[in-house]
Design brief:
The chain has helices at about 5-10, 20-30, 35-45, 60-65, 75-95, 100-105, 120-125, 125-140. The chain is mainly α.
Amino acid sequence: MPPTVVAVASALGITKKGQRSTLDIIDEIAKGLPVEALQRLASRIAPDDANFKFQIVPKATLARRKNQPGAHLTSDESDRLARLAKVWTFAREVWGDDEESARAFLFRPHALLAGRRPIDLSLRTELGARLVEDILGRLKYGTAA
């Protein structure tokens, strides 16, 4: 079973004290996540790649936003980031919070993806991310992957 919306929110650093509903979190993503959520997730997924975040938000756009107080991502950028957070959270869950193993899975070409890297498919489209989640589910629950 893929991670919960609350687990994804935690990976993005958007959890707040007190109980938050799934719909509150979805609304926050739709309004646009803070730029810090991008920085947080990118540094966890690809700590050695300073350019990784530019696959989600172009470099010039991110530079402009960083100069704005309280800058937020667009709805589309936030949705892409949340999709990536979901895949990242699921990969960590599969490997028992071992981030190195989760990274290795995401950045290594996979036979069930015709030699493509799971991270690339997850960034590109929702269907790509779902395919990666399917493979993660197979790994977690012991079917062929």
